[in-house]
Amino acid sequence: MILAVTGATGFVGQAVLDEALQRGIAVRALTRRTQPTRPGLSWISGDLASHDALAELVHEADAVLHIAGVVNAQDMAGFRAGNVAGTEAVLAAAENAAAKRFIHVSSLAAREPALSDYGKSKQQAEEAVRASSLDWTMVRPPAVYGPRDTEVFELFKAARFGFVPVPPQGRSSVIHVDDLARLLLDLGGQGWETFGKVYEPDDGTPEGLTHSQLAEAIGAAMGKRVWAPNVPRGVLMAAARGDRLLRGAKAKLTPDRASYMCHPDWVSDPEKAVPPNIWQPQVPFSEGMAQTAKWYRDAGWL
Fold first, then answer.
1. d(Cα 141, Cα 174) in Å, to the nearest integer?
2. How many CB atoms within 10 Å of residue 165?
3. Which residues pair with 2 in a beta bridge?
4. Which of 109, 121, 143, 274 is deepest in the core (most CB within 10 A)?
């Protein structure tokens, strides 16, 4: 099997590469920078705007796994360029190469496009996938955590000091990055029963977790008892505007991100769960949190 992967240098993409190579799958991966060589892995130099690179990436590929995307941008144009135009370019390359099988990594944010430019761009990317002639399957991961993650990592850093402010009251599902990687690769080898399906996986925790429960679990993984107050929407939005003013394009908390963070329901829809005969999560939440905290320490991040 030849697997073509976009976004392979990112958080989820690196976990996918590790799992794919362990399974003996031949991988072609897109990169904008020089990467270390690995047996079974061929790096293709280029990005989502490089039509020649995309053509080389998907040539004779048995499946295309599109992970690449933009989670933070200055405006809608930035999200559209990374998430919509980028997806359309990969779809066109796959169709031209007759690759057929296409696994698209979307987001739960696509369910609520009115909340944020990010969510709107992910919904538009989904529409492009649906309109294609490929045998597609879409995956909308909830909050993804695990080694190498830089997003949930911010909460681990805060937990060191026993104070983890969280959004207004709501619930979220989570998934460990290794479980997500296994799912994406498992889908690449599945037949017609997964074609045209949209899956919302999670770690198996019924109804997800409250924001406070998530913060407390991170504190437990760090050996700390934490105070996790719910920050009102107005305060969170003001903090986001302040972060944008202070750090510009490097801001972690943007108004767009704060808007969808305040939504009360980011729980994976059980009606869109992956059939258990295809995939099941293997990393229990508490175990995954402890493993992640250990990785951060061992890597010198904490």
1. 8
2. 17
3. 26
4. 121
> H or E element: which one contains 293?
helix 285-298
% of residues, the chain, pLDDT over 90: 88
Q: What is the pTM of this model?
A: 0.95
Question: CA-to-CA distance for 250 and 258, rounded, in angstroms?
Answer: 15
| 51 pLDDT higher than 90 | yes
* Predicted pLDDT at 2: 94
Tens-place pLDDT, residues 137-158? 999 999 999 999 998 999 999 9
**Separation CA 202–CA 141 (nearest Å):** 7
Give the residue from 275, 103, 115, 270 showing the smallest Cα distance to 195.
103
Q: 102 pairs with which residues across the strands?
A: 64, 136
Q: What is the pLDDT of residues 72-94, one digit of tens each?
A: 888 999 999 999 999 999 999 99
Note the CATH architecture for domain 2-298: 3-Layer(aba) Sandwich (3.40)
Q: What are 63's strand-pairing partners?
A: 3, 101
Length in residues, the chain: 302
Query: What residues does each domain of the chain span?
Result: 2-298
Q: pLDDT tens across 258-274, in order?
A: 998 999 999 999 999 99
Distance between CA atoms of residues 63 and 103, nearest Å: 8
pLDDT at 79: 96
Least Cα distance to 3 among 96, 87, 46, 67 occurs for 67
Which residues, including other chains, have CB under 8 Å from residue 152's CB and lie 6 or more apart? 143, 144, 145, 218, 292
**Cα dihedral 35/156/112/108 (nearest 10):** 50
